[in-house]
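Hi all, a correction to my earlier message: I attached the wrong file for Iron-sulfur cluster insertion protein ErpA. Here's the right sequence:
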Amino acid sequence: MTEQVEITEERRADSINLSSVAAGKVKSLLDQEGRDDLQLRISVQPGGCSGLRYQLFFDERTLDGDVVTDFDGVAVVVDRMSVPYLNGAMIDFVDTIEKQGFTIDNPNATGSCACGDSFH
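and the right structure:
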């Protein structure tokens, strides 16, 4: 008999959240780049079929009003306009047969499009 263990991550409602799996993947990607001056920037931009879409990318800049949160040595940066949309959201990384990549579970999103790329 195989016992399945579910790992739960602590989730804060007053900031962005990054799972330990996602933090590990970000560290791995940064190691591949050979850069220690980059941070993971997450923002919400107009676009997509539901009105808003997420952007995740590595950035070396720090902008006025940025909120920086550290997760196991990984700096996650959110611009001040995106903070209200992302508070409480959990960024995770999945690697299955069906899909691979970062996922965002956002309690602030009231709906999303069929492709899953945008939300409102």
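Sorry for the mix-up. Strands lie at 17-18, 39-46, 52-59, 67-71, 74-78, 90-95, 100-105, 118-119.
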